[in-house]
Amino acid sequence: MITDCVSIVAAALLIGVYVSWRAGRIDRLHARVEMARAALDVTLLRRSSVALELATSGLLDPATSLLLAGAVHGARSGDRPRDLAESDLTRALRAAFSQPGFRSSLNAKEGADELLAEVEAAAHQVYLARKFYNDVVAATRDARRRPLARVLRLSGRAKAPEFFEMDDSLAAEKTSASLGL
Amino acid sequence: MKIGIVCPYSWDMPGGVQQHIRDLSEALIDEGHEVSVISPADDDTPLPPYVVGAGRAVPVPYNGSVARLSFGFLSVSRVRRWVKEGGFDVLHVHEPAVPSLSLLACWVASGPIVATVHTAIPRSRALVSFYPVLRTALEKINGRIAVSEAARTTLVEHLGGDAVVIPNGVATRRYRKADPLPGWPGKGGAIGFLGRLDEPRKGLSVLLKAFEILGPQRPGLRLLVAGPSGDAADVLNRVPAGLRDRVVLLGQVSEEDKVRVLHSVDVFCSPNTGGESFGIVTAEAMAAGVPIVASDIEAFRQVLRGGEAGELFATGDPADLARTAGRLLDDASRRSQLSAAALAAVADYDWSVVARDVFSVYETVVLGSTQAAVTALSDGFP
What we know:
By secondary structure, chain A is mainly alpha-helical. Helix content of chain A is 75%, strand content 0%.
């Protein structure tokens, strides 16, 4: 009799610990989503500020400069959904970078190599940060979808995080296809 | 006079600016001038003898949509060579604030330069924050032309200074007569639309919504839609299933078929929600003598003489469009009255008249210039 009681209490305790661990995990995942999102925001901002620096550097012809500046402005203004506006900036950068002989045309100019490298590094960081963000979003959405999490509402009032999809590759071969042309 | 004209958009894409340049050049050539046009173009595009290709334009996002533009150092050197070899008395650039050939031409050339601004766009912060870069290139312009009051306002706000308004021309004789497409307009009546299907400012969705109201009331009424780009299935999905067989999509049509489309409908609709500075398509419809229903934007109000040469409806309002178009479909005498008024109004816009106005701007600029001819600045950034 006493052993029965002890095992019931022990089982209840174990279940309680397990459920609270699961809830804690979901909570931690949500926190990680927020951090990854903040990191993504920082990389996007960094990319657009380097792109603006390139646009105003005087290294490029005025048409390319104006295209880049327009795209940076679009990404910052919030007139359009963020993913679309940031993808537009990617496409503007790609259009500039994928001109045949683009790099050699700037070789002789002072500071050009550093600035181009900085733009590429910033663009690559956007790619990484977005990948990490989407990974943790996937994990979180998966954890929230589990039956136990759903039945016991372990995620509380927190909204399901959304994936952030955008065109973030500076590689030239995607130009036409990604524009749907 | 030797005239060099710069087109910023791809010659192989249909568009108001390209058409303007083509008609202006041909009208100037008819008057005995020597004209050379430089324009982005795909290598295999057949070009008229007066057009020089500047290489393939690249699709890039610009101003909220995708435009095919020419930029970059290769384009710079092509324009420079064209200016150097052309020996022009005057250089005429179109849309100099668009990041393409025209801006580059201003940048590399020196001498008498005339610029025409086509688009009316709200004051753009990107442009303003970029003023110093643009200024060097745009300050060289000696004479500015705007194709409408709205475009003039844009130019004055963006760049200061002033501009003469010379509206677009219409090659009216090309539109006067054509055979309707077989079976059109039909007994139940037909409404026509011309323009890009996927450009929201062209307002096709306003017209489709209006058709949702009109279609059920008028069992025979059909919609004839012609224009490039856009997915036909996507357009049809926006129409209720019961009305789909009455919406006919022609896709992109040739110049000749465009005229036939205009002659195939009882009422032509220009539902643009903005961004239009003149509305060449509307003027062409006027030259074809089709009764017009157009949104009440400034550009249309002007070309339609405040509603005298075509009915205006509240911009972006499908219910008002349905009411206005419905009234017109029921009233044959009002339609012929509008048709006559449109034909009379559009005579002012014929290219022969317009080209003479443009030419007098050239003469004025050449008189006021310290340089006798247009020259190319040396290599390296000015």
